[in-house]
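Example 3.2
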Amino acid sequence: MPHVPLTPDLGAVVSFEGAGVRLPKLNRRKVGRSRNRLKRIRGDVARDEVWFVRDATFSLQPGEALAIVGHLNSGRDQLLRLAAGTLIADEGTVRRSVPIVPLVGLGGALGGGYTVRQNIYLLGSLLGMTQAEIVERLPGIVERADVGKILDKFLGDSSRLVRGRIAWSIAMATQAPAFAISQALTVGQPSFQQQCWEIVEERHAAGVSFLVVSDKPSELKRFCDRAILIDEGRVLADTTVEDALDRLKDIPPPKDQVHFVIDDDDDDDDAELI
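Structure, written as tokens:
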């Protein structure tokens, strides 16, 4: 029978106890970053704070793959960011026993004014790798991302596909004990997707923990051990993946698309993996 734990597990990878987060939203449907930033400086754009997550209590166990199931704007992506530490709770507590590497928006951390090699060093350092570890793992990152021919060229206006491969390969090279993944367990072309599956399933079998948000039920069913169902910012159930997906069918999606602001340089498409 589905249950919602009332107290967090102190031995968990991450535990939530009554956690919530509120963020400013834009009272507009679609705006450009630079133009919108100027409007906010002038005070022309109203900003209201909205609770995206309220009173969340659950935990992720070591070696577990946990799906966060919900519609867009249900609070699922903010819950993932809270778990990874890229958002700070405004109420309740979120406790992590190990670092959780976020595969959320990593493509935005890659700079077009740097070479691919420099980006690998920069993002690798941000994700907790030492210089020695990056040097040791660089050949594997380059091979996996298939960027050997452009390693010392500026990233420039490289496609999102290329940026995705690079960011994903760097993140997996961290050998972290836990990952928070939004929208894709796999990225890129079919051959690269197969590599991704081999890596995440190998890591999962070795005891690495995963928190996953995905709009692909097949990915969640294939990979995740259990699920959290969330709607309107509240955890409705801690259950099986199949049950969460079935119950989601009876929940209408939000009528309005809420664009929220984490900082002035974020894209509108904020819930994207890479």
